[in-house]
Amino acid sequence: MKFKGAVLCEQGHTFAVVSVKQDVIDNAAEADKVIASFEPIFPGLKIVLMRQDSDGKAFYYGDTELSKMLTGISVRAIPLREYAWDDE
């Protein structure tokens, strides 16, 4: 599996942000499963899912405090990189 993500250290918190498709965030049960699936990749870190609309505006799902904090950060400031994970 390949995905885009980043590990951020903001305001005393270290956490992961993972870019996903819109339909993932639109379904809370699915989003929770996706977060759980990324826990082995980012052990010990809280994970926030991010999607962008067609205008580039970001939307977040996950820890409420972290999601709120991210809304004040430009998406361009999030150092997303491509990860490859062998989930088999």
Topology record:
Blueprint: E1 2-10, E2 13-19, H1 22-25, H2 28-38, E3 46-52, E4 58-61, H3 64-70, E5 81-84
Parallel strand pairs: 2-3
Antiparallel strand pairs: 1-2, 1-5, 3-4
Protein architecture, described:
With 88 residues, the chain is α+β, with helices and mostly antiparallel strands. The protein has a single domain (2-79), classed as Trna Endonuclease, Chain: A, domain 1 (3-Layer(aba) Sandwich). Helix content is 25%, strand content 35%. The chain is built from three helices and five strands; from the N terminus they run E-E-H-H-E-E-H-E. It has helices spanning 22-25, 28-38, 64-70; strands at residues 2-10, 13-19, 46-52, 58-61, 81-84. It has a five-stranded mixed beta sheet, with helices on both faces. The longest helix is centred in the middle third of the chain and has 11 residues, at 28-38. The chain starts with a strand and ends with a strand.
What is the assembly state of the chains in this entry?
single chain
Using the CA coordinates, give the radius of gyration: 12 Å
The helix/strand series, from N terminus to C terminus, equals EEHHEEHE
Q: Low-confidence stretches at least 5 residues in length (pLDDT < 50)? A: none
Structural classification: alpha+beta
Name of the CATH first level: Alpha Beta
Number of strands: 5
> Can you list the strand order of the major beta sheet?
4-3-2-1-5
CATH fold-level name:
Trna Endonuclease, Chain: A, domain 1
Fraction in helix: 25-40%
Give average pLDDT, whole number. 92
Q: How would a crystallographer describe the biggest sheet? A: 5 strands, mixed
Count of DSSP-assigned helices: 3
- The outline comes out as globular
